[in-house]
Amino acid sequence: FKLPSDSFKYLSWWDIEQNDVRGNQLRCPRVREGPSKEQLFFRGEEHTLKRRKQVTDTEKWQKKLQENWENCAELNLSFQDLGDLYQVENFKRILRRLIRVEKLWLVDNSLTDLSAIRLPRCRELNVNKNHFTSLKQLPKTPQIQHLSLAENNIMTLKGISDFRHTPLESLILKRNPCEFQERYRQLVFSSLPNLKTLDGIPKLPEDCSPPDIRFIFKMCTIL
């Protein structure tokens, strides 16, 4: 069964000239830019390069201004199909420009490490269905309130205390190996006292860590 787009699969992308669409006006843009002529040459793949229009430095600067990533407040960059290393680096370049984004979706992008990225105003981040193996690999989000990490490969809760000084209210870690850790919910809530919801379930009385048994044994009872 062929998709409706099948007849267009061999078409090339072309820049639409003389348009005034800004990057912050797009909710679900696609990052599909290919390697430059110089990069293809050094990789020995210049034969794959089709003739492109020569772009001046002025045109490059105008294009950067038109992207306007700095003014994005809500953005969905999911399902990008980043098959080439160049596309991954270009994707990270865009993330570094999201200095005002508050809601960001990066679902199913095969991401492994965004620790060098800082999102200073991000309040809601969804990175479901990626390849993160540690909480240390997430971007820096000092204002995060809602974080979704479902269906990654996070093995342990190491690094969760980094969110202790953030306003994090809800966290989703379901379908990660760390979910099967003994006393999983108690460990998460003890590390994040201000957390209200874990995996869609509000904080329950049994989620509060019991007193340390070793401390009880050291106490003496005076009758």
Automatic annotation (TrEMBL):
The keyword Repeat applies. Gene3D superfamilies: Ribonuclease Inhibitor. InterPro entries: LRR_dom_sf. Keywords: Leucine-rich repeat, Repeat. This is Protein tilB. It comes from Merops nubicus. The lineage of its organism: Eukaryota, Metazoa, Chordata, Craniata, Vertebrata.
